[in-house]
Amino acid sequence: MSALALWCGIACTIATGVFYSFAEMRGYGSDWAAQVCQHAPTLCSHPQWFAAAAGVMLIFYFIVERFEV
To answer: DSSP secondary-structure letter at 40?
Structure first.
């Protein structure tokens, strides 16, 4: 169970970087980044939501890892 929490935290961390990059690249005229942000405008506008989810998952990971047998 702790491995799942760790991988979810890592995936959320990567998604934070990806959507933050897309939001920045959209402002410089990148067509493909604009298309991604057109289909997921909330994620491009607020990539910090993934960062918060990653933080929660990593805290959960440390708690579960401590109590696993």
So the answer is: S
